[in-house]
Amino acid sequence: MRALYHFHGGIHPPSNKTQSTLLGIAPAPLPSRLIVPFHQHAGEAAKPLVHAGEKVLKGQLIGLPDGFISSAVHAPTSGTIAAIDMQPVAHPSGLPNLCATLIPDGKEEWIPLKVIDYHSLSPAELQQLLRMAGVVGLGGAAFPTDIKLRIGKQKINTLILNAAECEPYITCDDMLMRERAAEIVQGAEMLRFMVDAGEVLVGIEDNKPEAITAMQQAVTDSGMPFEVVSIPTIYPGGGAKQLIRVLTGLEVPSGKLPTDIGVQCFNVATTYSAYRALAHGEPLLSRIVTVTGNVRQARNYEVLIGTPINELVALSEVLPDSNSYIMGGPMMGLPLPTVHVPVIKATNCIIAASEKLFPPPPPALPCIRCTRCVEVCPAELQPQDLYWFAKARDFGKAQAFSLFDCIECGACSYVCPSHIPLVQYYRFAKSEIHAREKEKQTADSARERHEFHLHRIEREKQEKAEKLAAKERAAQAAKSGTTGSAAPNEATDIEVRRAHIRELAQSHVEHSKE
Amino acid sequence: MAALFSPFISKPDNVAQIMLRVLLALLPGIALYVWYFGPAILVSITLASITALVTEALMLRLRDRPVMPFLKDNSALLTAWLLALSIPPLAPWWLVVVGTAFAIAIAKQLYGGLGNNPFNPAMVGYAVLIISFPMQMTHWVAPRGLEQGGLVMAELSFAEQLQYIFLAALPQGVTLDAITMATPLDTLKTHLHLEESVQQILNMPIYGQIAGHGSEMVAWGFLFGGLYLFASRIISWHIPVAYLVTLFAIAGIFHLVDPTHYVAPLFHWFSGAAMLGAFFILTDPVSSPTTNKGRLIYAAGAALLTYMIRTFGGFPDGVAFATLLMNISVPLIVLYTQPKVFGKKSKEGKP
Q1: Residue numbers of the domain that contains B246
Q2: Which residue of A has its CA nearest to B343?
Q3: Closest by alpha carbon to A71, among A277, A258, A334?
């Protein structure tokens, strides 16, 4: 047995996982239409490659990665692109986003698939393949996997497969491990190869004994020296920093990445998708989604990306008193603006909510500084102080009290006897700070421009005066006079600075667009 | 529509329940109080409770705040009970009313109400009374069955107690001195001034096994209730343990050096408001530090001040002033005892 470590705090909310694990993963039928957003990952949106009316094949690239942190988007099935336009999507901002609407032709006609031997390719080539296959983190953050694999000069000692799945209700990783453990293990070996990790640990919370057995069996069968570790069930044990702490005892320094301490984490579903992409050439077209909550039959489905959530939840028969839907778990999930938004790569769970299942919180009372939030905070913050600073808009103090180390797990709000929506205050403070920084940058560049403008006027005056003096001098020493060689140099210098200013002005426009 | 943001679930707990459990934890102490000193204390608790609720409601009205959610949070009742338990049960009715009203209106609501008071409201109320009405604050009832000067002290019936509280009228032939006495702490102080030794003084009938006859048992009741608060995780161990250990240590040092002038540490534990303070007053979350290290410093400071005021000061007990003085220092203590955040513990990120 591996010696496990503890992280501070944590809570034990009712898990509500059994109801969706009674039946195996079912393939969701082809929906009437698919709405595929071009921006479903962290970073820049993909650039559309298709136009309305175009016929596409299953797996065809329809969105090209655009920018360093970006990922590809594919047609989830064969059919016709009906529209490329703004559609409502699941995003905290509630704003619509550019999507391709695809009407399936029902033929499921694939693009020709290339099977590759990953050992014959370099890690960099494999990373490019993953990028073009649209593989992103499926744990919820949808961060492009290829970026996380670009380690640079750092040495990775430990590769961790995150299978903690600590949020209540969600069971998609659990079921994936029960049914497809062998493929996950193969994927883990591919990822290990790419980061050249010494050891591979699979962290699974001990409330998933079937998954643990399945993964252990798969590891034994594969002959890989991986270790499946049963970790205590405690929320948020699946937070990357918390899981790293539990498995290795290491603490990821504030503001640093796990790779800085020789660790990298991947979610099991991501690992599975990486395997499909590299071993079968299949881009990321579908994922496992838990449909649970106020439904007749909670279950996990293999769902095409872009499937409208109303069609997905209908498979589980939503009970009539449901009044809203949550994407993700009840601790960190996102309330959906409408049930007509599509499943995206980050969609791990859809919970049908009712007044009875999630009663609205009673009106908040003032904070009585009981510090229950401090006791449960996995980041070891002082949530009651952060709340106070956020409320008073004292953002400097909030930052000094490590606001940005908050992982927004919601444990503080969960235990608060005054029912204060604490996390919402932290989100507010963080977004305000970001907005102010952006404003400051814009102001700074404007000031620089202005200062340079003044500087230029001053210099032009000087130059004029110098030229005049030079002329006079030249006139005086008529025959032997030569002009200085400094002037052309200065002119190019001005050109460079002008280019720089144009660039700044451009970025200013981009900022204001956002 | 469910809530607009996560988390969508929460622990079924609320402020009112926490306060209610603290009130329940006071019951063993109150029961013993009634057993030894008669039911008068129930009258002052009731008076204080009514005054607290009425004052709270009026102030919330004046401050244009919702009245019912705050009246139902039980925090005003807790202030009322703690104040009632700190003043003599036979005190005139208006004393209780003035003290409680001041505590709620000035010390709590004027500072912003629940969660915003820098000082413990009950202790502010107590301080106002002891400074403004020192005479009335000495009307401590003698415990039942107490002999003084060879005579069993008079005992008032409940009706007679009520009559005295509300009308200041005593039954014929009974003097105030026959039913009230100085507290064990006060008696000790007075007699030490008369050049008597601690040993001589403790032989007086008002003293029991450890401290004051009767009052030591009430202290046991509060200790018992306090352990319940700890067991139900409403308070952490830091404040009670730091307070009692420090009080024991400093009292122990003085006692070891000069046992004829300085009473044993256990006497301090079971006298006055030490137990009530350790578990119920100093642990008030609003006016105490939020960091564990801060709680240790705060409670140790309060213990030191309690001992100083009791031993060298002019007031009968030191818990109230010790609490208020430490309340002032809370922001500073909290600022200098901030724990390290996860990820900032060491440069290498090692555990």
Answers
A1: 182-331
A2: A253
A3: A277
Taking an 8 Å cut-off on Cβ atoms, the answer to whether A362 and B114 are in contact is no
B17 touches chain A (CB under 8 A): yes
pLDDT band at A479 (very low <50, low <70, confident <90, very high): low
- List of chain A residues whose C-beta atoms are within 8 Å of the C-beta of residue B4: 335
Residue B294 shares a structural domain with residue B169 = no
Q: Which residues pair with A440 in a beta bridge?
A: none
- Structural domain contains residue B339: no
B351 in any annotated domain: no
A157 touching B (Cβ < 8 Å): no
Instruction: Please choose, from the candidates A342, A349, A334, A353, the residue with its C-alpha nearest in 3D space to the C-alpha of residue A290.
Output: A349
Span B47-82, pLDDT tens digits: 999 999 999 999 999 999 999 989 999 999 999 999
**pLDDT of residue A347 exceeding 90:** yes
Residues 6+ apart with CB under 8 A from A188: A159, A161, A200, A202, A224, A226, A266, A271
Instruction: Give pLDDT, residue A451.
Output: 87
Scan for tokens 């034994």, then name that residue.
Answer: A220
> What domains can be seen in chain A, in order of their start residue?
18-27+121-287 (3.40.50.11540), 361-476+494-514 (no CATH)
Total structural domains in chain B?
A: 2
pLDDT tens for A280-311 read 999 999 999 999 999 999 999 999 999 999 99
pLDDT digits (tens, 9 = 90+) for A431-452: 999 999 888 888 888 888 888 8
Q: Does one domain contain both B285 and B152?
A: no
**Which residues pair with residue A205 across a beta bridge?**
A231
Contact A361 B115 (CB under 8 A): no
Are B53 and B170 found together in one domain?
yes
Residue B340 resides in a domain: no
Confidence at residue A484, expressed as pLDDT on a 0 to 100 scale: 44
pLDDT for A64: 95
Contact A247, A223 (CB under 8 A): no
User: Domain check: are B189 and B327 in the same one?
Assistant: yes
User: Across the interface, do B8 and A323 touch by the CB < 8 Å criterion?
Assistant: no
- Of A328, A369, A417, nearest to B290 by CB-CB distance is A369
Dist CA A11 CA B87 (whole Å): 42
Inter-chain touch B290–A374, beta carbons under 8 Å? yes
| Together in a domain, B175 and B208 | no
Q: Confidence class of residue A341 from pLDDT cuts 50, 70 and 90?
A: very high
The answer to whether residue B351 scores a pLDDT higher than 50 is no
Asked if A417 lies within 8 A of B69 by C-beta distance, the reply is: no
Residues B240 and B136 in one domain: no
Q: What mean pLDDT comes out for the span A11-18?
A: 96
Are both B167 and B193 inside the same structural domain? Answer: no
**Does the residue B92 lie in any domain?**
yes
Chain A residues whose beta carbon lies within 8 Å of the beta carbon of residue B338 = 382, 401
- On average, the pLDDT of chain A sits at 90
Pair B302, B155 in one domain: no
- The residue of chain A nearest to residue B331, with distances taken between CA atoms, is A385
Asked which of B137, B154, B180 is the last residue of a domain, the reply is B180
ipTM: 0.89
Q: Is the minimum CB–CB distance between B340 and chain A shorter than 8 Å? A: yes
Asked if A234 and A242 touch (Cβ cutoff 8 Å), the reply is: no
CB spacing of A250 vs B350 below 8 angstroms = yes
Q: Which of A271, A277, A219, A240 is nearest to A61 (CA)?
A: A277
pLDDT band at B168; cut points 50, 70, 90: confident
- The distance of A174 to chain B (nearest Cα, Å) reads 22
Residue A292: its H or E element: strand A286-293
Nearest residue on chain B to A9, alpha-carbon basis: B342
Closest partner residue to A13 (CB to CB) among B9, B73, B291 is B9
Residue numbers in B near A380 (CB within 8 A)? 339-342
CB contact under 8 A, A410 and B342: no
pLDDT higher than 50, residue A510: no
Cα–Cα distances (Å) from B22 to A38, B25, B180, B232, B280, in that order, read 56, 5, 30, 10, 8
